[in-house]
Amino acid sequence: MDEKTWREFILSGTRTGKLATVKPSGVPHVVLIWFLMEENSIYFTSGDSTVKTKNLLANPRASLCIDAEDYPYAFDSLECDAVVERLAPEELLPYAVKPGARYCGEARAEEFGKRNAVAGEVLIRLQPTKVIPWAGMPE
């Protein structure tokens, strides 16, 4: 699967990501995220006190799996470097509105964005360093 194809796959519809980070104890932590991609980074917003944010501040590496949940099934597994950015709410707003449009629809995008572009929220960017696509079961 070439880069154009895996990018189209992960941005298709409302696929969610399963983000894996590592706690300081070494225990894995996996959570579902809503995300978008801008140029070469995948981004999402998160609370600055969440486990995933704390984990990425301590160890800026993560894995992200995005899958098609219907037959013939498929997934992309991405190994990523992470950057946590603290932005002013007005700077964070566009990064919260766009995923809101993807997952909640245009009518609720602004509502979602305003809820998530507040003090205590951060922008997390994942830079894929390795992509492992799996195209699915044979038809």
Description of the structure:
With 139 residues, the protein is an alpha+beta fold. It contains 4 helices and 7 strands; from the N terminus they run H-E-E-E-E-H-E-E-H-H-E. The chain has helices at 3-10, 51-58, 89-104, 106-116, and strands spanning 17-22, 28-33, 36-38, 41-47, 61-68, 74-85, 121-134. Strands 2-1-5-6-7-4-3 form a 7-stranded antiparallel beta sheet. The model has no long low-confidence stretch (mean pLDDT 94).
Provide a quick synopsis of the model.
The chain has four helices and seven strands, in the order H-E-E-E-E-H-E-E-H-H-E.
Ranges where pLDDT stays below 50 over 5 or more residues in a row are: none
Instruction: Give a short account of the largest sheet.
Output: 7 strands, antiparallel
What is the number of helices?
A: 4
Termini Cα gap: 17 Å
Mean pLDDT: 94
Shape: globular
Helix-and-strand structural type: alpha+beta
Strand ordering within the main sheet: 2-1-5-6-7-4-3
Helix content: 25-40%
**Which strand-content bin applies to the residues?**
35-45%
Instruction: Report the count of strand segments.
Output: 7
Using only C-alpha atoms, the radius of gyration works out to: 15 Å
* N to C succession of SSEs: HEEEEHEEHHE
Q: Which descriptors apply to this entry?
A:
139 residues, 7 strands
